[in-house]
Sequence to fold (371 residues):
Amino acid sequence: MTEFKYELIAQDGNARRGRIHTAHGVINTPVFMPVGTVGSVKALKPQDVRAMGADIILGNTYHLFLRPGPDLVEKMGGLHEFMNWEHPILTDSAGFQIYSLAHRNKVTEEGCTFHSHIDGSKQFISAEISTQTQHKLDATITMAFDECTKKEITYLNAKKSWELTERWAKRSRAAFVKRPGYGQFGIVQGANYNDLREESAKSLVDMDFEGYAIGGYLFEEQKCDGKMFDDVVSFTTELLPTNKPRYVMGAGYPSDIIRAVGMGVDMFDCVLPTRNARNGQMFTSEGTLNIRNARHKESDLPLDPKCSCDTCQNYSRAYLHHLFKTGEILGLILLSQHNIAFYLNMMKQLRTAIEQGNYASVAKEMLETYR
Fold:
């Protein structure tokens, strides 16, 4: 059976090119994980996501817990079988949803009581339930249950929060069913207080997780505060083991990803590529563009002249503008396809640059145009 392990292939400065060996295949890093919230990367078939170069996707424990429910997914053979994706899957712990739906929940030592956003029913998730749910989903990588800190938080409250996350992490670790090729990641919290991040990282490393994530409000899907992002990521990454994967949760803008790769981060996820595509915003090698704008109405150009995805090779901006304006589903499919392909190709370019020892120059060139 395959052992879950991180293999370092090349390093350029702090940037790392590696492989994560898992029960469901190899993950080439640094990697971007398309988000399949309810077991589906929105508007795209799993085989198309794979064909674009995805090694791993992310599933959302909170949403799958509510529907169709972990018992049904387990009955159907697990999430891989259920959604026809035989490759690695990482599932989050539901911690971010607890944070983002704070008006619907109550957090205690035992866990989180919340009201479903679907029907208002009262629900409860604990460290044990979160871990068991991810096991039933057959997640290749399980995330420890955590409390995500808010944007504005005092030192005292941040300390209390990470201490709760630490206790939940111990319970998550105890509930995790160890199997060959499967892993569980602990999540470093502590807001933007370095001493708390350091204590959090040390505690998690002592628990000997298979990988480690950097979490918190800094890494929402909105554009991050660049300096704060860089300070926290660079500081925290240095506290984490070099022989295990490092994951920045929710950092989704290309510029944030590129900078974080240079700090030694291996894994990223965000809903931005598909969500922004559905709003008409496209990521390209020449910067972002909005396909809704009238200037694209008569343009025979592709979205991105440097992109080899099916959308850019076969459809003009004028046609995509027309599809978007008329509300055609095909438009959302083609736009989502391009954005996912853009992210995956960007990661491939970064991996190659690290292997060739020219990461700094490639990253500098990208950052001149990438948002």
Summary: The domain at 5-270 is CATH 3.20.20.105 (TIM Barrel). The mean pLDDT is 94.
